């Protein structure tokens, strides 16, 4: 049984990835900072190792692994993201460079643009190329779970999708399950080592297309409402805190303007590289919103 170190196993994305790993027969080991995470992860058949996430602390943990999945916490500052990734990459390298898949979980600018959030993503990509050049880097678009979770009440009660991406920009939204499928495929695709691969969902949808499709699934009229970054910050702050909300809004503001083309990558190419097939939007929506249909 191969052992996989999974960073971020206690988060929503990590939980989905962990379950797919376990179903495939992997033993999952999660580095965690707090004892409070241990019991809940162990209950999900995930082994845990306590760490302070310094390079020295992580190195011995990673030495146990055959493979590594690196993810970055969302609820930390861009500077902390960079430090987190640099420590982890150095630990992976010092542990013998086991096959690593790094999921950045957002699009990455081609060059530095003077915004902390997007620039941190590019810096993490560059650090990976420098410290662990064999890693596969996955850069994803936006997540469908935003609609079934953060925006669910607005969709349910108001028939509105409040989104900071202009309505005419096509976005290849993907689900956490889609992401997990990409990651598991990347664990096996050793021939893709060292590649940076943009990924997304099976369909690229504009705001109008998204609202129409979701409306059909829910049996009601849904309106896609463009909002400003300030409105998005105010909307998200009660759920994730002001600091994280500001960071998310900054990313959306960039993605909704100069970064918009990155939200519609060559998904067909990515699917061919990894040899996987993703469900369409309707299949996801029927499952995610089945309680309110």
TrEMBL record:
Taxonomic superkingdom: Bacteria
Annotated keywords: NADP
InterPro entries: NAD(P)-bd_dom_sf, NmrA-like, NmrA-like_oxidored
Pfam families membership: NmrA (PF05368)
Residue span, NmrA-like domain: 3-259
Similarity comment text for this entry: Belongs to the NmrA-type oxidoreductase family.
Protein known as: NmrA-like domain-containing protein
